[in-house]
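Why should sequence recovery work at all? Because a backbone constrains its sequence more than one might expect. Tight turns favour small or flexible residues, buried strands favour hydrophobic ones, and helices have their own preferences. The token representation captures these environments compactly. In the example below, the structure is given first.
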């Protein structure tokens, strides 16, 4: 298998997904490259670290925030565990109310 955008050659049996516990053979026309590793294009990607999430990997999924590896669902400022009801995005990163640059509501303590 010739991988044009990586300028590399592989045996067909060696061209597999780099995600632990996946290792599926990759379609040379339908895969993604992250940090010089090859992955199935069908894996969901973590909003925070942008890497694929394995089918059996613990994750956090929120309708408004997206999908995260369980250990990635933390504040970009202080790295504390996040409460989905009170955290919010700012410039592409998710923050707890203490670290978010916007003020919080005096009643519900959610980010304004």
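From this structural description, the recovered sequence reads:
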């Amino acid at each position: 298998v010739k991988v044009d955008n990586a300028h590399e050659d592989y045996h067909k049996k060696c061209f597999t997904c780099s995600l632990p516990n996946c290792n599926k053979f990759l379609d040379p026309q339908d895969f993604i490259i992250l940090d010089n590793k090859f992955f199935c294009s069908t894996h969901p990607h973590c909003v925070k670290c942008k890497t694929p999430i394995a089918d059996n990997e613990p994750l956090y999924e929120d309708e408004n925030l997206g999908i995260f590896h369980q250990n990635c669902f933390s504040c970009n400022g202080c790295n504390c565990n996040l409460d989905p009801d009170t955290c919010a995005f700012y410039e592409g990163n998710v923050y707890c109310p203490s670290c978010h640059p916007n003020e919080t509501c005096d009643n519900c303590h959610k980010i304004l």
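A few observations help interpret the result. The chain has a mean pLDDT of 86.
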